[in-house]
Amino acid sequence: MPEVNVQKLAGMSAADRAALVRRSEADLSFFLEKAAPIIEAVRTEGDAALVRFGRELDKSEGLTQEILQAPQSEFDEAFDLVDPEVIEAIRAGIANIRSFHEEQAPEPMWLKEIRPGAFAGDRWTPIDSVALYVPRGKGSFPSVTMMTAVPGSVAKVPNLAIFTPPGPDGKVDAATLVAARLAGVETVYKAGGAQAVAAAAYGTETVKKAHKIVGPGSPWVVAAKRLLASEIDPGLPAGPSEVMILADDTVHGGLAAMDLLIEAEHGPDSSAWLVTSSQRVIDEALAALPVLWAEMTPQRVEFSKAVLCGEAGGIVLAESMDDACAFVNEYAPEHLEIMSEKPFEYLGEIRDAAEVLLGTHTPVSIGNFALGPNAVLPTSKGAKTWGPLSVTDFLRRSSIGYVTEKGYAPLAKTAKTLAEYEGFSSHANAVSALRAKYLKAK
């Protein structure tokens, strides 16, 4: 078997360092080219294209146009198919996610008196329709349904719809349907990949057009979002999973290795790095990995080995923890665990990470499923400018202004002076003596 990728930052060239932070979707040229005809087919053929691609690409022989939207009977059946313990775990996760996002929600409107008689503020209103993408290719993800549907529900979006690939029988993953209903979403379309993004962007005979799409996906989904950005708001850049474990010498390397595998097992296009200044931690992590792999299912072992023994994952030895923190910021990971007995000592040095989980009892598993903060996060360095999916992603913000007669004169003087300087005569006229004339004539 190939060896786990171990790199040393000391003496590394700029080119090699840049290669370490490169993600699997950095070059989308192949996917952009192949997604374009799929998108065009959905635009022109509608439901027929969705059924055809569902059968060809998702291998869903049971998919028909009549069941492109999951019927209510399929929701009802799902509650009988899913183990009660799983349903209870979904309920518990949704409760925590809802509690967090309700606290996060902004005030519907605020106004501040900027100066006497002049008021300005913001008003938040829900986006009319948002598509929620829930992947399925390398597993089933009711947790993604929870993370996308709950903040949309808290934001009171009137039209929320889930898009997820169908299984071979033409049905949706049962736990996903359970999570959807418990989170308050009853519209689920059976479409994945580029064809799902196209359906959300254009609409079809069955699918209602959406204004925005959120949720993580494969490079096919990322490429389609990019191609359709003029038709639908693609939301934050959420591609294949990535994690970085920042560990100091106060922890056992086996613990770091265990959490490194959490996102590495998602698929061969994931990214996963352990970054430390401790050779002991590295040695312990390398010794623990075979033991941990023996406890995993064969498919997840295959995925995680492809990541950790490839170019997008492994172990990085830094010269110091300051150097390690600098590399974290350069990488800007989706998930970051600061694994230390004193994690808050490093938190101040971290600027660029979408999610920061502190200490030895906060693995990504808890962040993904149970804690409450959103686990739909920006990938591929998106953390440098984006944050996690939030209630505000389902809202639109309007600026509000109100000026009374008392507050008008000083603001008009300022506006008129600047308008004349910039050469805008109508701007200037609107706050000149002409306005006073019309106001008196009412």
What key phrases describe this protein's structure?
single chain; 442 residues; alpha/beta; Rossmann fold; six-stranded parallel β-sheet; four-stranded parallel β-sheet; 18 helices; 45% helix
Detail the topology: elements first, then pairings.
Blueprint: E1 6-8, H1 14-20, H2 29-45, H3 47-56, H4 72-81, H5 84-104, E2 109-115, E3 118-126, E4 129-133, H6 142-154, E5 159-164, H7 174-183, E6 188-190, H8 193-202, E7 212-214, H9 219-227, E8 242-247, H10 253-264, E9 271-276, H11 279-293, H12 298-308, E10 313-317, H13 321-331, E11 335-339, H14 344-347, E12 355-358, H15 364-369, E13 395-403, H16 405-422, H17 425-429, H18 433-440
Parallel strand pairs: 1-10, 4-5, 4-7, 5-6, 8-9, 8-11, 9-10, 11-12
Antiparallel strand pairs: 2-3, 3-13
The amount of beta strand, in percent, is 15-25%
The share of residues in helices is 40-55%
Q: How many beta-strand elements?
A: 13
Mean pLDDT: 95
CATH class of the largest domain: Alpha Beta
- Anisotropy-based shape: globular
Amino-to-carboxy terminus distance: 86 Å
**CATH structural architecture of the largest domain:** 3-Layer(aba) Sandwich
Which structural class matches the secondary elements? alpha/beta
Rg, Å, rounded:
25 Å
Low-confidence stretches: none
Number of domains: 3
Q: Spell out the CATH superfamily of the largest domain.
A: Nitrogenase molybdenum iron protein domain
Number of helices: 18
The biggest beta sheet is recorded as: 6 strands, parallel
Strand arrangement across the biggest beta sheet: 1-10-9-8-11-12
